[in-house]
């Protein structure tokens, strides 16, 4: 027969093991959420760059009048070269410029009548849709990471390490088109 203190020690050891396993699982989950945020941000950046490239292609395609081309090219350039703080505003400006271009009277009919017009319109629609989806996925990942970081255990034990607090990416990303 084993002494009573042995069972107490065994219970405490098992409890500490389970607590350690839970903390390890929580830290791993938080790390995976941060990786998910970084991956979603990279996909969002790629979608935004692709949309601005398509906007620049449309501006340079001679399918638009010179003034409209200049406005669209300027908005696309600003969106591509904006720093982190001004990026949301520049991308929103590009969205508004694209909608202003596409909402012009008879725009779709005039562009579709040209030989390379339908391809440019399809590419613009696809790039704009990808921005909407990528931003949605990114903001969902940010929401999950922020929820996990608000948990008491994560705050008491600094399980997030030095990872930056993830921020939402809010832009006017309503797609252009009828």
TrEMBL record:
It comes from the Bacteria. InterPro entries: LemA-like_dom_sf. The keyword Transmembrane helix applies. Keywords: Membrane, Transmembrane, Transmembrane helix. SUPFAM superfamilies: LemA-like. The chain crosses the membrane at residues 6-25. The keyword Membrane applies. This is LemA family protein. It comes from Actinomadura logoneensis.
